[in-house]
Amino acid sequence: MILDGFTKAFSLILHLDADLLGIIFLSLKISFLALVIAVVFGIPLGAFIGLKRLPAKGAIIILMNTLAFGHGFTLMDMNKDKSTANRDADIRR
Fold first, then answer.
1. Is the predicted pLDDT of residue 75 greater than 90, yes or no?
2. In this predicted structure, what is the pLDDT of residue 64?
3. Which of 2, 12, 92, 93 could disulfide-link 17, Cβ–Cβ 3.0 to 4.6 Å?
4. Is the pLDDT of residue 14 over 90?
């Protein structure tokens, strides 16, 4: 059963399936757009915070680190299905 799935996946890749290529290019386009937005806002903001003397500079850096590193993990946790979440809760007990 699992082998059939792998066989089908490799077949789609080798035959350059149009739907698969559409999904791949859409994913790359969205990732590139996210990168551009992050660079356009992130580099100037980081330079401003790094070069200026700000009264709450330490707090701003802590807040930015918290948002940057905590945000992705929160989204991953939100996407877990209930069985995984219940299993994780049982493990923590």
1. no
2. 83
3. 12
4. yes
Confidence tier at 70 by pLDDT (50, 70, 90): low
Q: Kindly write down the DSSP assignment for every residue of 7-73, as one continuous string.
A: HHHHHHHHTT-HHHHHHHHHHHHHHHHHHHHHHHHHHHHHHHHHHS--TTHHHHHHHHHHHHHHHHH
Cα-only R_g, the chain = 21
Cβ atoms of 92 and 84 within 8 Å: the answer is no
How far, in whole angstroms, is CA 27 from its chain's centroid?
Answer: 12
Quickly tell me which residue has 């996210």 as its tokens.
34
